[in-house]
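note to self — DONT lose this again. spent like an hour looking for the file last time. sequence + predicted structure for the chain T wanted, 74 res
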Amino acid sequence: MALLRITTKHESNVNGVHIEKGLSVEILSPTVAPFSNPKAKEEIAKAFMTKYGVDLKKANALANVSLFVVEKLN
């Protein structure tokens, strides 16, 4: 398992969802490429919703990996 920090790169408004630049969450992922893993994508969406109230699913942001910076912490 990899501990990853996922951070938003840009500010955007999509489908009524406002995403600020610099928001970050930490998740445990079975891979260092979480956007290719459906379970890890679900964890990312859940973490952003819990911490910031930002619905990445509604914004369809999880389909665009270029909106995020992924850092491996361990």
